[in-house]
Amino acid sequence: MVYIKEHKSLDREDDDDQHEHPHDEAEDSSSYSSNPRPHSLLEYLLEETLSQVFSSANFQDTDQPSEIKSESNESLKTVITPQDSEFSDELQSENGSSINIPEDAGLRPGSWILFPQLPGDRDEGVIKFIELTKELNIPPLGQIPQMLNTNQIDLKSYGLDPRTMKIICEALNSNTTVKILNFQDNWLTADACYHLNDLLINNNIITEINLSGCRIGEAGSKELETGISSAESLQYLNVSRCDLGDEGLLYLSKGVYCSPSLKKVNFSNNNLSENCASTLQKMLIQTDNLDELNLSWNNLNSSKFWETFIIGLTANETLKYLIVNWNGLDGECVPYLTEYLSSDPNLLRLDLRDNSFTSVEKIAEALINNTKLEIVELGNNPVQAKEVFIFIQTLTRLTSTSRLKMIDLENIWADKEVLPLLDDLKTRLGLDVTLGGILSNYEIIGPDPRKIFLKRANFEAMKPKKKKLKRNFGQFVMSLQDLIISREAFKKSIKSAKIKLSESLITEISKAFEIGDDAIDLSILKQFYLKEYPEATELPPLIVPRKKRKIKKKSKKIK
């Protein structure tokens, strides 16, 4: 319950009486609610507003004794005097009343559920980043302080200043949340790579680095060598489109095979040539963790390169996924590939798409001896339909020991002869062979010629202008018996029914319903005609008109 104290007069004596008689508060409250006497518009509006608040706050059961009500509400009362109001001067001069209202109903704490307070303390790395930005007078990057509290720094195509790279690396030295760094398509200088190298040495939680398109070159690769080999948690390194060249690869390859955790490396589109064969060979032999290697979009198509590179591939025991698409590989590389596949390595997936293979029969023979490979991708190679048939026919020799699940021949077409072979591989081994399409795998479906001939017969039978010469071809068909007759007999029956059809049409109808040499099944003709023209069953029987005999008039002889 809410208590409101209101004086009946503005004299100071009434104020003294109020303090001397506190038990009159209930009566004063009822008197106030029943006979409010505002002395100004502001006071009236204030009292009306407070009365609405009090009425909504008075939610207790009225059947309980008043003593219990007063005790339960005693702790909720707050005395608000005119001095606490923004209209204190005016109210104090006109009214000396004090008003008891309850405390806040709980909305204030609840509001923080919807609008939680921001943490007062900032991460040490965030503070360091802001301080260094101000110290070096670098334009502020508003997104980075927020990213420092997540698991990823994503600054793809951001146009990073080398000085900004230094600040980011300094802020990340003691960071414990960021695990992924994405600097794709930023031109990083050797100095930026130097600071990134320090970060990899000092930070032990970064797992992925994407430097694709950063064009770090040989100088940047040299700076990153130590950091890559020292990073204890780094598992993925993407340095595609970085203009490494054979010399830049030399530095990074040392970091790869010395790394205790690196599993995936992308060296694609880095102008690598046959001179890097020994570098890749050494990296594959000495690494203990690498399971995915991407060498696409380079110039690794010479037999000299593969002669050296295949030694490292065969000696490696951890590689599971090899990507060498867009390298111009052709028949010159096939002997080395087949040697590698026949050795039954631990490789699970091989990507040879978008090369220059014209024959893949030898690759299929090597797959027969392989028991671990699961996916082979050969799409977009200039393989002809005959070679595809030989390739798939060779694959039918696969046994249950093979683990092949899919062979991708995207954009490579074959003839219809391969369809049974594909069904056999799918049914027997569960092997899916994806083709670009099947040549001539279609059937010409046009209008039924029998419909055309019968429709033409209906027209020609009713074509004569003289009514007595018009005939209904349907009546003729319904009059036929279920017999097998010769073409000549069929032709005579049409003429005997006085139906005028062209000789060519009669010949075509005879061929359309012919069941053998010179044998026409009239029952099939009737069934087909009734299917197309079911109303023919209601036609009256055919009546062939007879010719009227001409009576010769005897001429009178003139005597």
From TrEMBL:
Residues 75-85 have a biased composition (Polar residues). Transmembrane segments: none annotated. Signal peptide: none annotated. InterPro entries: Leu-rich_rpt, LRR-containing, LRR_dom_sf. Residues 1-11 have a biased composition (Basic and acidic residues). Residues 1-41, 57-102 are annotated as: Disordered. SMART domains: LRR_RI (SM00368). Pfam families: LRR_6. PANTHER family: F-BOX DOMAIN-CONTAINING PROTEIN-RELATED, LEUCINE RICH REPEAT FAMILY PROTEIN. This is Similar to LRRC74A: Leucine-rich repeat-containing protein 74A (Homo sapiens). It comes from Cotesia congregata.
